[in-house]
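[User] At your convenience, examine this fold.
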Amino acid sequence: MSNNNLIKGSLQTIILKLLEENDRMYGYEITQKVKELTAGEIKITEGALYPALHKLEADGLLTTEIEQVDNRVRKYYSLTKDGQKEVDNKMAELQGFVENLQRILNPTWNPGLT
């Protein structure tokens, strides 16, 4: 199953939510966590991940910390206070989108009756 086009629109939300749950992560760790949580169904490429991380950092939603680990330099990403607020905004936005998509694909669906 190819989710690449669907993931592009949700990548920032995925990153922010993972960082909220894990405090700080490095890029490869993010890709592996997504792969693990989706049983390999969703794979985030470095080519998609790092531009999204850099944009979130430029927007003031992430902060970075560089550490030396086993003779390698690792760049860890963490949420800023604005990033923590943005997680809630993005999750509400995504929830609204999913509900609207359900209404389109299944007009008899009613989220209040689950």
User: Anything to note?
Assistant: The chain has one domain: 4-107. Residues 4-107 form a domain with the Arc Repressor Mutant, subunit A fold (CATH 1.10.10.10). The first helix runs from residue 4 to 22.
